[in-house]
């Protein structure tokens, strides 16, 4: 078989079937396509094993592997998937194939080229992440109702910062806003109490995959 041309390939860490652990499709059986590489180094990162390595996959082969699992939901994640330019082609091809596609991105890179059929889950980095300076605020005006903004919170400082971001940028009027506690750093009940006390227009969530499988690769 001919070697795929570089422009048709992506470096992939893993492709696997699991339950979606967060965002608005939480709980649905989902195929995850985890791309290799990330320019950020958040202190709470769970798939740090995706920073390096991986294997080159032809986009047609990726679609064939996704189809093999037989579910409708597909999540393209990382690492930081948008760090690979051909990610945009993959997202388009998945949408063309009829899948319900979401993209998990740090928000440090431009989301403007993402197919409008994709639900973009943009993770705005808090001070506690160690990468708050990497947030690309130019992405905020691009957000649409099918998108989501996610804040992973490490403590009260992060909560207050995120609360101010929601108010300053009227994020809740653009898309769904998600607040979740960083496992082992912020008590979930405490965060829930803060949200209720402030009557925030945000959705509290727990990272289901961490509860069930504790960051196990491929789950």
UniProtKB/TrEMBL annotation:
S-adenosyl-L-methionine binds at residues 44-46, 79. Its EC number is 4.3.99.3. Gene3D superfamilies: Aldolase class I. GO terms for molecular function: 4 iron, 4 sulfur cluster binding; carbon-nitrogen lyase activity; magnesium ion binding; S-adenosyl-L-methionine binding. Pathway: Purine metabolism; 7-cyano-7-deazaguanine biosynthesis. Binds 1 S-adenosyl-L-methionine per subunit. [4Fe-4S] cluster binds at residues 38, 42, 45. One of its GO terms (biological process) is tRNA queuosine(34) biosynthetic process. The keyword Metal-binding applies. Its cofactor is Mg(2+); S-adenosyl-L-methionine; [4Fe-4S] cluster. It is an enzyme of class 4 (lyase). InterPro entries: 7-CO-7-deazaguanine_synth-like, Aldolase_TIM, rSAM, rSAM_QueE_gams, rSAM_sf. It catalyses: 6-carboxy-5,6,7,8-tetrahydropterin + H(+) = 7-carboxy-7-carbaguanine + NH4(+). Residues 25-219 form the Radical SAM core domain. NCBIfam families: rSAM_QueE_gams (TIGR04349). Homodimer. HAMAP family: QueE. This is 7-carboxy-7-deazaguanine synthase. The lineage of its organism: Bacteria, Pseudomonadati, Pseudomonadota, Gammaproteobacteria, Lysobacterales.
């Amino acid at each position: 078989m001919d070697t795929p041309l570089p422009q048709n390939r992506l470096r992939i860490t893993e492709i696997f079937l699991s339950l979606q652990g967060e965002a608005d499709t939480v709980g649905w059986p989902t195929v995850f396509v985890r791309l290799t590489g990330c320019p950020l180094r958040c202190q709470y990162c769970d798939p740090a094993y995706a920073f390096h390595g991986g294997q080159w996959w032809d986009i047609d082969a990726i679609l064939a592997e996704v189809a093999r699992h037989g579910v409708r939901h597909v999540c393209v994640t990382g690492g930081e998937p948008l760090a690979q330019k051909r990610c945009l082609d993959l997202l388009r091809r998945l949408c063309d194939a009829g899948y319900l596609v979401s993209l998990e991105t740090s928000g440090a890179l431009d989301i403007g080229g993402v197919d409008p059929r994709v639900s973009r889950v943009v993770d705005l980095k808090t001070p506690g992440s160690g990468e708050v300076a990497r947030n690309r605020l130019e992405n905020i005006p691009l957000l649409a109702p099918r998108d989501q903004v996610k804040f992973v919170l490490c403590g009260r400082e992060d909560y207050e910062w995120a609360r101010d971001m929601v108010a300053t940028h009227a994020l809740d009027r653009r898309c769904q806003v998600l607040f979740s506690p960083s496992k082992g750093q912020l008590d979930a009940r405490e965060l829930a109490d803060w949200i209720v006390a402030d009557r925030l227009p945000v959705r509290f969530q727990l990272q289901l995959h961490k509860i069930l499988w504790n960051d196990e690769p491929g789950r």
